[in-house]
Amino acid sequence: VLFRSRGLHFVPGTVDRIKTDLKLPHIGWNTLHLKTPTPLFAGLDEGAYVYYVHSFAAEPCAETAAVTDYGGPFSAALACGNFFGVQFHPEKSGETGARILRNFLNMK
Questions:
Q1: Whole-model pTM?
Q2: Is 57 left (phi over 0), alpha (psi -120 to 50) or beta?
Q3: From CA 23, how far away is CA 103, in angstroms rounded?
Q4: Which residues pair with 50 in a beta bridge?
C-alpha cells in the first residue's frame, strides 16, 4: 500500500489504493448498489449509474450507504447521522447526480 489514510474519523476504517488488476485510475460510469436507506438517494433506482475518477476508496463499513464494484467492492457513499460523503462525482453524473444534489439541498 503506497498510501493509507484514516480520514476525518467520522466513520471507522481506512482509505486505500484500490486493489485491482483493472486500470487505475478508475474513470467512467459505474453502478450504485444501495445498502441503507438514506434521504440522499431518495428516488434513485438500484443500479443507478454515477461517474468516477479515482484510484483510492474507503473500505465498506457499517456506515456504507452504497457500494460500487471495481475489481472488488468499495464504499461509494457513507452516511452517519447528518454527515454524508460520496466517492463519485455527482456534478458529472447526469440526472442521477442532479437528483442526489437536489436531495442533499432539500434535507432538513
A1: 0.89
A2: beta
A3: 32
A4: 30
